[in-house]
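My current task is to audit a protein record that another person submitted. What it holds is a sequence and that sequence's fold in token form. Thanks in advance; the entry in question is below.
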Amino acid sequence: MVLTVPLFPHQAIDGTYIDKKCPFTGNVSIRGRILSGVVTKMKMQRTIVIRRDYLHYIRKYNRFEKRHKNISVHLSPCFRDVSVGDNVTVGEYRPLSKTVRFNVLKVMKAAGAKKQFQKF
């Protein structure tokens, strides 16, 4: 299944950046899973780490436990104001490096009223 992304960010159309790994202006096609998560780290160049929380069922106790996965995601320069705590929608594409297999498609800003405590 090949997904064409019809909603271009405004910066992707009018931008002057060069990124061959951008899903909007580059030569990569989004195919596979579409996921969402919360941005946790932004210390790499053009790559962010998102956290996906989910519940796993334990049959012995008939209950669920919380689990999470950290996913490395390519962040195109067309998304300029992404910060830690934002919700992002990502799409799967071909392996880009050892750990990166997803690309950011949409960014939803975090709620400003909610305060979060960060680990040191």
Summary: The beta strands are 2-3, 30-31, 34-44, 47-58, 63-74, 87-92, 102-108. The first helix runs from residue 10 to 14. The mean pLDDT is 85.
